[in-house]
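The record is passed on directly below:
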Amino acid sequence: MTTAFVLGGGGKWGAVEVGMIRALFEADIEPDLILGTSIGAFNGAVIADYPGKEGVDRLTGFWEQATGENLFETRLIHRLSRVATLKPSMLGTHELRRLLERAVHRDTLIEDLPVPFQCVAASIENFSEHWFEEGPLVDAVLASSAVPALFPPVEIDGEHFYDGGLVNSVPLSRAVSLGATTIYVLQVGRLETPLRPPHRLYEAALISFEIARRHRFATAMKHMPEGIDVHVLPTGSPIAWDDRSQLRWSDTNGIEDRMNAAYQAAVDYLEEQQ
């Protein structure tokens, strides 16, 4: 039996995954394989590098610091200067790399991690998903987290990559293809809220984005082979698809409350499964 943790993307809302991971380890559920997209790649990489309580503590400390010190905040003048000089992104990757190198062992190779780990990014040149199975961990997670317009593409071996959420936001299908038999899906809350037809012009764009984000996961669930046990962990605080606060990526207010709510929701869910 192979147990996989699948961690989806979702920016600052990725903090909820830390609460879920904590609940899983407390229930003595440990992964044989970890797969991640975007912020899920970040969280997953830390756990793959520091399995168990140490990894949970490192992630909890990171998100608490992010909330308390506004680590994601940048000066408006810096963002405007990049726009004025026609840069392809609002931010550079230096700060994100610094955060990653504080969270994991700086020079770790993916193939050397204690727990097998893979993350996905979108290849620009090949217009397809690319899975990082080996090579420098920090570079791979940077590529998986390169949100278009927010960050520039990440170049690795002459190929350029954008955020993995563009091609596989919640990589359930990858876990199935790699032979996982028990899969725990750690998602940020969007999967818990239904969609409806738009009532306003701006809603059309949001709904279209959500369909693009969710369809791969929905298809994988619909065609799940027999004998595979999938658990989609609840967040305890679902994100409404039309909640525009999710667009304020640097606003970390309420993140700790969501992390704690996800922990309790996951604990309750796992107890029900026993």
About this structure: DSSP finds nine helices and eight strands in the chain. The longest helix spans residues 201-222.
